[in-house]
Amino acid sequence: MDAPMELAELEDRWLLPYRDMQVIEIRVSYQLTLLLDSGAQVNLETEAVLSNGSLCAPDVVMTRLVPEHQEVAPALALFGETILSSVAFKSGALRLVFHTGTHLNARPDPRYEAWSAHGPGGLCLVCQPGGGLAIWR
């Protein structure tokens, strides 16, 4: 694996440094955690959506994931998958795209931290309740 790219800021989003990282472990508790081969991890704490392509595609099939109720079985298919694109929008939305074409999308929750991402290194991003991002590097 090449050295991870840096966090990059664009006008409406952050490009996360997870490109070409592989999901090597999946944990389920009150949250769904994807552990990546770099030591980084993505935690989903509120409802998210898995889809077989972009949510805008006319024939997209969407599957709800509800971590707080352990309704995440479809996410187990992400084990071993490699991330093609990882984006945190400044609105608080998260989009991970995998080499297989599977998309994982999470939106902000009005009351809770919907998701967080940690690593590599000291990087930490948290979707704030109601939207927006908190970022530590």
Q: What is the topological layout?
A:
Blueprint: E1 8-9, E2 13-15, E3 23-28, E4 32-36, E5 41-44, E6 48-51, E7 62-65, E8 83-89, E9 94-98, E10 103-106, E11 115-118, E12 124-127, E13 133-136
Antiparallel strand pairs: 1-2, 2-8, 3-4, 4-5, 5-11, 6-7, 6-10, 8-9, 9-10, 11-12, 12-13
Describe this structure in words.
The protein is mostly beta strands. The protein has one domain (8-127). It is built from no helices and 13 strands. The protein has strands spanning 8-9, 13-15, 23-28, 32-36, 41-44, 48-51, 62-65, 83-89, 94-98, 103-106, 115-118, 124-127, 133-136. A seven-stranded antiparallel β-sheet has the order 1-2-8-9-10-6-7, with no helix packed on it. The chain has a six-stranded antiparallel β-sheet with strand order 3-4-5-11-12-13, with no helix packed on it.
Main attributes of the structure:
137 residues; six-stranded antiparallel sheet; seven-stranded antiparallel sheet; mainly beta; single chain
Distance between the termini: 22 Å
Percentage beta strand: 35-45%
Largest β-sheet summary: 7 strands, antiparallel
Total number of β-strand segments? 13
The H/E string reads: EEEEEEEEEEEEE
Please bin the fraction of helical residues. Answer: under 10%
Number of domains: 1
Provide the spatial order of strands within the biggest beta sheet. 1-2-8-9-10-6-7
Sequence stretches where pLDDT stays below 50 over 5 or more residues? none
The total count of helices amounts to 0
Query: Can you give the mean pLDDT?
Result: 93
Shape: globular
Helix/strand-derived category reads: mainly beta
Radius of gyration: 14 Å
